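Researcher: I'm preparing a figure for a lab meeting and need a structural model of a single chain. I don't have an experimental structure, so a prediction will have to do for now. The sequence is pasted below. Please return the structure as tokens so I can convert it later.
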Amino acid sequence: MGETRTTCPYCGVGCGVIAGPAGAISGDKDHPANFGRLCSKGSALGETLTLPNRLLHPALRGQRVTWDTALDEIASRFSEAIAQHGPDSVAIYGSGQLLTEDYYVANKLMKGCIGTGNMDTNSRLCMASTVAGHRRAFGGDIVPGQYEDIEEADLVVLVGSNTAWCHPVLNQRLIAAKQKRGTRIVVIDPRRTATTEEATLHLPIKPGGDVALFNGLLIYLIDHLKTNKSWTEKHTTGLQAAEDAARKQMATLERDTGLDSAQLYLFYDWFARTERVVTIFSQGVNQSSAGTDKVNAILNVHLATGRIGRPGMGPFSATGQPNAMGGREVGGLANQLAAHLDIDSASDRDLLARFWNLPHVADKPGLKAVDLFQAAADGKIQALWIMATNPMVSLPDADVVRRALERCPFVVVSDIVADSDTARRAHLLLPAAGWGEKDGTVTNSERRISRQRAFKPMPEGVKPDWWAIAEVGKRMGFTEQFAFEQPADIFREHAALSGFENDGRRVFDISAFDEITAADYDALKPFCWPWRKGETPATRLFADGGFPTPDGKARILPVSSRPPVHAPHKKRPLILNTARLRDQWHTMTRTGVVERLGQHRPAPQLSIHPDDAGEIQPGQLVAVTSDWGRALLLADISRDVAPGSVAAMMHWTAATGSAGEIGPVVNPAVDPVSGQPELKHTPVSVTPLATRWQGILILRTAPATPPKVAETLIVRQRMGGLWVYRMTASEFAADPETLPAPSGSDFVSAVDRKRGRVRWAAVVDNKVEALFFAAPAGLPLPEAEDLIPLFDLDPAAPDTRAALLAGRITDGAPRSPQICICFGITEAQIKGAIAEGCDTTEALGEKLRCGTNCGSCLPELKEMVRHAAIVPA
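Model: Understood. Here is the structure written out token by token.
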């Protein structure tokens, strides 16, 4: 095969990718989302094409079965549950990793054929508040602008968005615009992040203060005559009620936002005086018990000024996942129907039933993610199918999810690996096609639909998700509804439904493709919806009104600031915020196996402000505890978080270690409108733990059951083609040598129980398969980099035993972390270059090449240069 144009499977930017015949990955210079740019994760995609522990055949209760047996089992168990307990006793929980065609078929099965709304998705965790806010204001879930507006704006406001790490290519486009046209950048975030390094103004807002901030801005615009009265009167309703609600909060504005008047009014003045303003908002807004109101507070100021749908202006939701938008188009959320039809509308339900040729469709919203798993824990869900996601890690209050999976009589998990926290609790595992193998479409944050094309064959025994769902539907008696032979058939039906009896009532309309051929589908170029039959595609929307509401007007809504559900208190005095790393994606199924992606931040940390740290030292083991759970992390003493707050990354799982999972700690409160969890505000306490012993275990093959030792943080990392587990324990493990080793091993060991030192090597078939070193705190351990070459030794050689047990013990000095993963440039190298006179990121790039490829490390390089100027060596 030659080069294949496809799309990246990570964030919602939707970057175009070119896959070469040998798996080489490069950015697609012709794709309008990225014009050839890729971030660190996208650049490393070629290194994820062969995953260890790949799931390659269906497995029922641990035993390999045929696809026919597996599909028969699903159809039978779903049918039995429906017959005995009704359609609401079954559910599907999907993912923004699914392609639109997968999503469409799943929704047709659940909301059409079975007749239950219980089809929800992990997009509930990232985009549900945006969906609810859009629907309340615009009458539909619609992002009105385009990426190019970011480049044409004079002021870009980033709210709750660490764009530099979470949407790196979008951030690169913004920084290029700043350099070209002097764009002002305001970052509104409680934390100091890589994104704030490029900010003209950083507003370290009090957690939960967003509604108050934008209500204050609305009043400032009104009082300074900066609203667009003629546009607002013609195209909106509700401004007076919104003003009345906002004025009630002005007296407590500084208290509610945590910002002083100088900070507030500088921002307000910039916004008022600048016509071309884009406001980008993301998880810091959405993941809140007031997320929907925060979204509407942002939309209000754009509607009140008419700054929407024109070049360089408008509110812009930065989507979390690669196909969260596509899932929303086909009813991926439990309170939606396909093609932006309303599940609460009898006429919309009738339309869909007639199009699908079914007697009826689901007539009420289903259970949203948190409620769905609570219902399963309560015994109300009898059959649950989970696709392309790991809710044991991503959902809050993970112990409820564990009980749900243990209590539900039948759990199916479709995934590409068999060793996720969720997969281990499944009754039936289905091997799904992965990126590079599956074929379909995705929609990015700017409503741009792109093809995700297969460029490598599926392994034998692996099937695409849409095929598995369709086959179950046929077995349940719906043969006519699932007569799809290829993804093009599904896309054609999806397009036809979008235009069916639409007449412009619904903005989502891609009926231009309702007769698309397989060949044209294969060659489909990226485009933005709507693209109605007989028309040209639209890009920006709503500049001249035309909102999909009964009167055609947008709603400016009265919203009032309210605090998060759970306030800090004496027992739990700190606020936990959850975040993401630059080089990792979700629960690290793919990125966690790429060695260079694990170099930047290899272990789970808890960022603590010095004022709150007390006697806690950097790198010390700490327990972070809430009323819902507990995790062990390594302390990162940092002024990047505000006093009273701590922050932890969400990526680590039981599969990538042990005890560092933050999900069990996070509270389960949700937004009452959107059902989105409050992942950014959990009251916690932090307790320092004395480090009693440390260990390092290196395995040639990852174990089926990851190592676990009581009161021990275990972190997995891929190095030198091996699996490295680093351990930090608060209690001395009496028998750490019992950690997993390959079966049938011959052991070379040395155990000094009195001193608490353990060393062993496991040999199988005359090959070193595992090494383990443990010692009390304070005694040196070998570095992983020094142990890896020992795996190439001949175990039968005379000196090998001594070499294996010695492990080339060093002084235990930590290695310098990598900052630029593209070229393997470490922090020490960069500091050395700065000391030699490289006082700009450009100079560092010329000397070391760091920052000259994907650009993801540029904010960190800039911070290092700035810090060196303030605090010279």
